Amino acid sequence: MKVLDNLNIPYIREEHVGKYFLDFKIDVGNFKLDLEIDGRQHLYRAEHDKERDEFLKENGFLVYRIPWNTVNTENGRQLMKEKIDKFLEFYNSLKE
Q1: Disulfide: which of 7, 25, 62, 63 matches 15 by Cβ 3.0-4.6 Å?
Q2: Which candidate, 41, 43, 10, 44, places its Cα nearest to that of 27?
Q3: Cβ proximity of 46 and 54 under 8 Å
Q4: What confidence tens digit (pLDDT) does each residue in 6-44 have?
């Protein structure tokens, strides 16, 4: 949330679409984006996530997933920064 707030990216937190919970719903241009921050539990939920993503896509959403990693080390912080930078590239491409 802090990253989105610092970058002035408007979002809705904890939005429900159908039976699914969205971490962050972001409207950008003509697109509806579901930004997911995936914790460890997603390692064991691949089928559920696939069904969820298909449902959201059928309902006009783009889904972007960022796998969480620890940020307790410099390497962990750098890896998360790289993931966020990739998301920002994707986000900015939707605005064009």
Answers
A1: 25
A2: 10
A3: no
A4: 999 999 998 899 999 999 999 998 999 999 987 666 456
What is the enclosing helix (H) or strand (E) of 92?
A: helix 74-95
pLDDT of residue 38: 76
- Tell me the residue type at 82: E
Split into its structural domains, the chain has a count of: 1
Per-position b or e across 49-65, b if 16+ CB within 10 A of its CB? eeebbeebeeeebbbbb
The pair of structure tokens assigned to 14 is: 């904890």
Token pair listed for 41: 């539990």
Q: Using the 8-state DSSP alphabet, how is residue 44 labeled?
A: G
Residue 86's pLDDT is what?
96
CATH of the domain at 32: 3.40.960.10
Please give the backbone phi and psi of residue 38, each rounded to the nearest 5 degrees, phi first.
-90, 115
Domain span at residue 90 reads 2-95
